[in-house]
Design goal:
By secondary structure, the chain is an alpha+beta fold. The protein is 30% helix and 21% strand. It has a 6-stranded mixed sheet, with helices on one face. A hairpin with a 4-residue loop joins strand 5 and strand 6.
Length: 247
């Protein structure tokens, strides 16, 4: 009987031990409260954001604004489009044309110079003035007014072509050289342009500081844009005299 009681006692102790061990195991496996410790924040690092955002804000995308009407109007007024000029007379084309003309003039190439003017002169009235034919088919006039070395004024002008060829040859003999300083192009009609020109001009019979600005001949020209020829060129350096065209 005593042996049996001891066996029952050992069995009860074993059951109590098993129950205590099970309770401990279940307590350790239960989840802990998800309170983040203050010393180790659980937020994602700013260097490698996982949600597309970070603690450091990204710079805003700049807003592109169109130019104001005032600035656009100013640009249009200062730089007209190519369609504002007659065909063949954009500023670049006129500048290239004048550079070729001045090159022929400075070389004294009479044959090349003739290609820059129409082959026929416009008829003149009884008073010796041009007949007003600005159709672009005929030469109208060429003139130059300047000062001699002694300060006296002189003027050359012609409404005809042969005197012009002789004048070019004479100026080449005086070592005259022309270089383009400025050109401004204006539209007269669909085939003719008006030019404002400044040429640097030197010669052995012209004061080096003559003209305003010094050393420059200034004037106007009329150009046939279709045929690339000069209908009119009138220049002055150091004063203007009364025109007295030679025939």
């Amino acid at each position: 009987m005593i042996v049996r009681s001891r066996a029952i006692h050992r069995t009860l102790l074993c059951l109590i031990s098993v129950l205590l061990l099970s309770a401990c195991a279940s307590g350790e496996a239960s989840p802990r409260p998800s309170v983040a410790p203050t010393t180790t924040p659980t937020t994602a690092p700013t260097t490698t954001p996982t949600t597309g955002t970070s603690a450091t804000p990204r710079p805003e995308t700049p807003v592109l604004r169109p130019p104001t009407v005032a600035s656009s109007a100013t640009a249009s007024a200062s730089t007209p489009s190519a369609s504002a000029y007659p065909r063949g007379c954009t500023p670049a084309e006129v500048e290239a044309f004048l550079e070729r003309f001045l090159d022929a003039f400075n070389r004294g190439d009479s044959a090349a110079l003739r290609a820059f003017f129409p082959t026929v002169a416009a008829p003149t009235a009884a008073a010796g003035l041009p007949g007003g034919d600005y159709s672009g088919e005929k030469f109208v006039w060429f003139s130059m007014t300047d000062n001699r070395l002694d300060g006296s004024k002189r003027h050359f002008g012609t409404f005809d072509l042969p005197p012009l060829w002789a004048y070019f040859a004479e100026r080449h003999a005086h070592q005259e050289r022309l270089r383009l300083a400025r050109v401004k192009v204006g539209r007269q009609d669909a085939t003719v342009a008006n030019l404002e020109v400044n040429f640097y001009r030197t010669a052995d019979d012209v004061p080096p500081d003559a003209g305003r600005p010094p050393g420059q001949a200034i004037g106007k020209a009329v150009m046939n844009c279709r045929d690339q020829t000069l209908l009119v060129m009138s220049l002055g350096q150091g004063g203007v005299a009364t025109p007295t065209p030679t025939r």
